[in-house]
Amino acid sequence: MARGRARVELPGEVRQRVRACHAAIARLISLGDDAPRVYGVNTGFGALAETRIDSASVTDLQRNLVRSHSTGVGPLLGVDDSRAMVLLRAQTLAQGYSGVREQVVDLLVALLNEGVTPAIPSQGSVGASGDLAPLAHLAAVLIGEGRAHLDGEVMAGRDALARRGLTPIVLQAKEGLALINGTQFMTAIGALALSDAADLELAADVAGAMSLEALKGSERPFADRLMLLRGHAGQRVVASNLRMLLEQSAIMVSHEDCDKVQDPYSLRCMPQVHGASRDALQFARSVVATEVNAVTDNPSVFPSDNDVEVISGGNFHGQPVAFALDFAAIAVAELGNISERRVEQLVNPALSSGLTPFLASNSGLESGLMIAQVASASLVSENKVLCHPASVDSIPSSAGREDHVSMGSIGATKLRRVVDNVRLSLAIELLTAAQGLDQRMPLRPGRGVAAAHEFVRRLVPSLTCDRPLTADIEALAGAIRDGSLGTAVRSACVELR
Fold first, then answer.
1. Residues whose CB is less than 8 angstroms from the CB of residue 482 and which lie 6 or more positions away in sequence, other chains included
2. Percent of the chain having pLDDT more than 90?
3. pLDDT number for residue 49
4. What's the mean pLDDT in 164-189?
5. Looking at the predicted structure, is the pLDDT value of residue 82 above 80?
6. Annotated active-site positions, please?
7. pLDDT given at position 39
8. Quick one: which of 275, 201, 270, 284 has its CA closest to 483?
9. Average pLDDT of every residue of the chain
């Protein structure tokens, strides 16, 4: 929905839950100044939670909350990221534990369906009490303030709503707090990054198989009976992918009787390394899937027929997501790390089993793919910095009331950067391995590798003389991102995972 622009609807049974919960809050508010203190409903926020707010000021309290918390800084998120945040915020409120009116959820849904996307700065959250600042910028558009993307422009939120015939809402009791208290920034960005990482998993196997063929490596280390001895699921999947990609390889047959006993780890250990990354990413996706369907605002409202219980807790704390996203960044980075080592094997004449130095047509006069490996090394080195876990840090805020935070928002944005970097690293390996396969002709590689090689050559011509390579790398990175590489290879190996 964030990227595909699918329409969103609110089912009838969901509306009933939202109405019942709001009615419970309305009963509490109807008691006026005799109502018990309820955090964020008739009290201040954070360190001001003990400050009682009189009943006449409840709406001002919620508006002021959104305004005061709109402190995000840095570049704006992309439209897809912000749409994902709107969708997940609607999902949380629609579960009927937040006490908001039905109109609040309806307006969030209308933003998605009408293409009005809050303009949300990418920095400013510490990941508890939720992603306060980014979500405040989202909420600001609902009240006719802030800024929004519409039809390729960034404009005042009120103008964007007006262009689509939408009316801003006046926030009622608890609604401002319900809109800004939660993990939807880190979860939205993390979910999209993890989705993109899925394309990297197969691309790593394809690029690795191409490199293995170009380097005249062995497929024997990928035998299923060997994988069964260890038992990790991802390892077995990767080995299966590699065997399929290498089936019917004439290159493999050509060196069956060579003297080489073992390949370098970057070739031989692809199932163990790629597989471990797959397993870690699967774990991260399971955590994020749970969070997508979670109620993460505070306090939570539990209505009954004649009463209501409001419980203040800590479901807004991003620690589960923060850990998962840090782990995911490490897992993705390793796909780039081992890929760069295979590129080094391909371009280094001391390691490349008869390929020309740096895969140049006229080595010495030409540098070939020498600096492509340097570019990959640069990306890998940057990832090592980005993979320092954000979740081990915590800086207290709100006068010590919010004394431990997750930094999951930072984990999410750096995961996305790692994913982008590794996509480029794998594109460099595809480019380099394809050049190595050119030099093995007329011997034909395995059926899956051949399909990948042919696909690369449709996008990027063989390197017959030195040329700038940036456009080639970006074209191959784009083919990983849009799934066309995977589609092309699956045409020859339909069971690839």
1. none
2. 78
3. 64
4. 94
5. yes
6. 39
7. 77
8. 201
9. 93
**Residue 80 near residue 195, CB atoms below 8 Å:** no
Side chain identity, residue 372: A
Q: Are 103 and 139 in contact (CB under 8 A)?
A: no
Q: Mean pLDDT throughout 23-35?
A: 80
Could you tell me the residue ranges of all domains in the chain? Answer: 12-182, 189-298+313-490
- Find the angle CA(106)-CA(110)-CA(112) to the nearest 5 degrees: 125
Same fold, 12-182 and 189-298+313-490: no
What is the CATH number that goes with domain 189-298+313-490? 1.20.200.10
- What does DSSP say about strands 153-156 and 147-150: parallel, antiparallel, or unpaired? antiparallel
Q: 12-182 has which fold? A: Fumarase C; Chain B, domain 1 (1.10.275)
Amino acid at 210: M
The answer to whether the CB of 450 falls within 8 A of the CB of 433 is no
Render pLDDT for 381-393 as a digit per residue (tens, 0 to 9).
999 999 999 999 9
pTM of the model as a whole: 0.93
Cα gap 294→88, rounded to integer Å: 9
- Distance, in Å, from the CA atom of 10 to the CA atom of 19, rounded to the nearest integer, reads 13
Q: Tell me which residue of 58, 73, 90 sits closest to 176, measured CA to CA.
A: 58
